[in-house]
Amino acid sequence: MCFAQTKYEREFRVRKNQFPVAAKDILTENLKDAKRLKFYKKTDTSKTTYEAKFKKDKLWYSIEFSSEGSLEHIEIIIQPLDIPSEALVNITIYLEQNFISYKVKKIQQQYLATKDSELKETFRNAFQNLLLPNLNYEIIISCKEDKAYLESEVLFNAEGSFKNKRKRLPPNYDRVLY
Fold first, then answer.
1. Beta bridge partners of 117
2. Which of 19, 21, 98, 145 could be 2's S-S partner, Cβ–Cβ 3.0 to 4.6 Å?
3. C-alpha 161: how far from its chain's center?
4. Which H or E run contains 111?
């Protein structure tokens, strides 16, 4: 069973000069040795955010900012073996109990920016890939529902307990695919 709120989100590339100034300042101050830095704007039904994606130390990162330029979270693309075994067991049990069939498309480790933590600390924790009790795992899956496959985004806490689930729309193809 794959039901939840639908995520009407679109993501598209923007130029660096279209990125919020406060976000660019945060990146300049905290980001060293990043490769393939690209800027994106994400819009959905409730808000607009900006995202910087890049590769650093052989890992793919994405840093999300509010439309005003304040840090929301940092995500790292990881593999299942990067998740502690107890949390992975809990996640697997949830997925097997709630979906008839599913395929994991992407797993991201998420470091939230909280009011209590400083920016430098959030960046340090993410770049050192620390396993902290307040991180989340965002798992994007293809799941079968009514003889059709849908994409869902399922969020778990550090222990592997379910937090949230949203349906995702397929990517926006405004161009001709050959």
1. none
2. 145
3. 17
4. strand 102-112
Return all residues near 48 (Cβ < 8 A) that are at least 6 apart: 41, 42, 67
Which structural domains are found in the chain, ordered by start?
5-168 (3.10.450.360)
- Average pLDDT estimate for 100-106: 91
Q: Report the interhelical angle of 21-30 vs 119-127 (nearest 10°).
A: 60
Residue bearing the bigger pLDDT, 119 or 140: 140
Strands 5-7 and 162-168, how do they pair? Answer: parallel
Rounded to a whole number, what is the distance in angstroms from the first to the last CA of the chain?
33
Give dist(CA 52, CA 147) in Å, integer. 36
What are 99's two structure tokens?
């979906």
Find residue 75's DSSP bridge partners. Answer: 62, 110
CA atoms within 13 A on the CB side of 61: 25
Unique residue bearing structure tokens 């593999």: 79
Interval 132-151: pLDDT, tens:
898 999 999 998 777 777 88
- Statement: residue 152 has pLDDT above 50: yes
